[in-house]
Amino acid sequence: MSYPQTMSRKHFPLLTLSMLFLMSACAQPPDQPGAANQTITMKGSDTMVQLGQRWAEDYMKGHPGTTIQVTAGGSGTGIAALINGTTQICQASRPMKPEEKASLRQQRNADAAEIPVALDALAIYLNDRNPIEHLTIEQLGRIFRGEIANWKEAGGPDAPIVLYGRENSSGTYVYFKEHVLANADFAEKYQALPGTGAVINAVKKDAGGIGYGGIGYATAVKTLPVAKDASAPAVAPSMENVYNNTYPLSRNLFWYTAGAPTGAIEELVDWVLGPEGQKAVSEVGFYPLKAPKPSQ
Amino acid sequence: MNANIRWRRRLDTAAEKIIFGFAFVAIAIIFLIFVYVAREALPIATGSVEGITLVSPFTAPFSWQPVSGAPKYNVVPLIVGTLKITLIALLIATPLALAAALYTAEFAPGSSREWIKPAIEMLAGIPSVVMGFFVLIVLASWIQSTLGLDFRLNALTAGIGLALAVLPIIYTVSEDALTAVPPHYREASLALGASKSQTALRVVLPAAMPGVGAAIVLGFGRAIGETMIVLMVSGNAAILSLDPGLPARTLSATVAAELGEVVFGSGHYRVLFFIGTLLFIITSLLNWAGDRFKRSLRIRLFGSA
Amino acid sequence: MRKAFDRTFVALTLTATIVILAMLAVIVGNIVIHGKDRLSWEFVSASPVKGMTAGGIFPAILGTVLVVLLMSLAAVPFGVIVAIYFAEYARAESRLYKLTRIAVNNLAGVPSIVFGLFGLGFFIQTIGRGIDRGLYGGQLVYGQPSILWAAMTMAVLTLPVVIITVEETLRAVPREYREASLALGATRLQTIVRVILPQSWSGVMTGAILAISRGAGEVAPVLFTGAAYFLPRLPTHANDQFMQLGYHIYVLATQSPDVDATKPLLYSTVLVLLILTFLLNITAILIRNRMRQWATR
After folding, report:
1. ipTM of model
2. If both were cysteines, with which of A119, A211, A225, C234 could A199 make a disulfide (CB 3.0 to 4.6 Å apart)?
């Protein structure tokens, strides 16, 4: 048997370690008002996360002193974070519920400021090969509740309907459930995917697939015209139809802050509502607000 | 007495105390995990949140609709989904891994043995999110069109993805068990005129059987808790059905998908921690069983644990 | 007849081995082929731009590295000390030892998502909020998802890996070493620090690298404890959030509006993560093999 003869006297690089510890030990204190470097946190809707990221990217180019952090998780997550105080701006694809506003008042001692920042047509996605040309809200409800399971019952080919949509943490899920399913539960076979991108991708690859989500995600799938009821005409989710409010699933996308925005956040809000911010809205694929605020 | 020695003694005692202290903290945290996860689920046991009890998640209606006018927190479809995917994964992975372990331990020429094992173990080094990505982007459509399934994302596809993840565990543990069988078992069998395969099948494999048991049980434990693969490719529909062609929702994917949104302290939050507790208990039992198997293998082969 | 059976059986097991190796080759090959073209210095050193459809992944790489570094700062010393306690101090027949032994083994098999639950509930909600109440008058500093808590969660997850690997090597140090050292008048601590630990260096390294490679690829524990979708600034403080390679892959694969457009980017990101974890794993395997050779010599 032979053993290594020398005993290493080398110890852990203590200096490096302690330096790292020091770095890790100091927390960044909450932002002081008036500080030169501002950090703004933005959290919430998955539907709006692309949009938020684009806003952040563009805004920071012109405002090098400001940093904007964007996190997703769903509108519910964002609203909870606003209530808990873990985010300054909450992005939401659905309006806050009265009880959520109440708990915000209770926890933060401030009223929710609701700022519509963009318009969205909650689109119904179909595979390109699907010959269906339009559906009514009522038909959609029956499809997603599982009462219609084959496309031939909705005037299409004899093929099973495959349902895709968002997880229940999503504001879009809640909106769809309220406005299309009349608050009934989704079908058992409804597949909840972790993001709108996953829904699009699934519908694109599945001839019998149907899904829903923000208009900004609708690439390489068919967006279906929807009729309010059997007697109404089917309306495509176009910008025009959202503006004149004929598309039945038109909705606002919101920002919420605890109390009216001030300081750097107010500047950001103004920018987002102004021409540059609204131009980013169109570029991401959503619809800008009807009357953009003139730039200051 | 020399001051230096006294100082050293003191240092020694102090260091010993520090070691004990650290060890205690680490061990406390380990116990804390179970205590903490279970504690968050505890109000369910007392029935004090939204009428949820320890029994209600298991009784009809078998429906998982946590965001609803009347939320339904029934974990039975999730358990069925989890077991369905896990079983598919094990049915695919076990024969393959076991056969490969037999080949590596019994038949492979020495030179190839040295790289086969590390190569297969490389499979274990692929992060599960990468595996999920690969199955989602590459395999899912191919499996659907090859088998003519109605759903692109389904239990079978998730099971195949999961099989890739548990394969290396089953392989490594059973290969270790086979290699641990002392050479004289083989020598005796070969001397009696048995062929190499007969020796492998009738002597070595039976002797290593508890190790194979451990391998399967540990693979089972890993598969039950695996999150990212199933989250990405199982379709996440809580269906109470045994059909492998349908989408399925698992316990772990449910926690991953829903925890971000829940209000702290709500019924939904408690139920998700209850699922966490379930996962903890199930995997602990499997782990314990795996340990028993390993121990009985050592006793069988070497006479002591 | 017997020969035919023999040959078939060996062929079958060989086939199974080839199938597994082929699957590995297909996965790795597919990722390398689709991912290599975009891989460039710019890709690993730039930030993502244009809604993640262009640019690089530097923040995600840095976040991954930082989180595993912080993780090992906690997991390695703790793990080594617990392993020393197990191997050098604990009596094998004591109840406490048996119980903790079981607990450590058990922890190694607990699903990573359970650690995510624990991290959110314990580190963020309990410890973090507690610090905020005590030191910052309730202002939000530590009571939110951050790189610190993500790293701590990871540390708990990888602790058993370190403990088990290090304990194994400590036990492999021959008893004569301890006896000789003690007989020469060294104290127990001196024996551990000067004799046993230097002999077990490779085990500590293996444990650390295995923990890091596990930590680098895990996504489930950081889902709720600190990973962010997009951060323009790199994390500099313990309470910053961070981007992470694995989480980035998950996000790109499920959130990107145009999966086909981001596919090349996605593939390259996957390739980077794969290279990272493979390198770590190979290093660990090499060290372990050298260690085994040395142990059996």
Report:
1. 0.90
2. A211
